[in-house]
Write a structure and sequence with these properties.
The protein is mostly helical and 189 residues long.
Amino acid sequence: MAETNKTSARQKFVDLYTALVSEISTARFDEFKDYFANGDDFQLAVQEFRNGLQEALLAKVNRLWEDSDIDTNVDILETLKSKATGISTKMWRPTGKHVSEQVRPLVVNKLKTSLKFYQYQLGFQKERTEELIYSIEAMRAKYQAMQVRRNHLLQQITNEQKTFDTIRAHHKALDHKLNVDLMNASTRK
């Protein structure tokens, strides 16, 4: 009976994939119809696609079936099923332990993993913070140097503006004096 179950389970998968592929409508390929000489060639191309897809899917199912040793797993399930035929009550926790006690090792492992992750993150953040502090200090020093240079240049501009204003005032005075002298000279003649 186990052999027929294995065969029937495998056959169910094969039948399902075959049905899946056979349900692919030719209407899905209508946009490619113009590339074929006639409808028979088009139907043949669609059927070749279906056959190729079915072969690929079934090859994967067969490979999965063999690689996962599903036949052995089906035998184990059948054995467990036959052992449980006389038991009518449902056993939710076969160990008899309380739920919190039963999952405690899983919780501890999760917490250990979380702790390792957080320690790693903390180390990474500390390293990154030190890099940023160094970068910020370098930028501060550069900014202060720029501020000092800016203040120096502003003072230099202010000094040059004062000198320029003084020269302009002196130039205006000389210009005015020259105009007065020229007017006086022209009136004397």
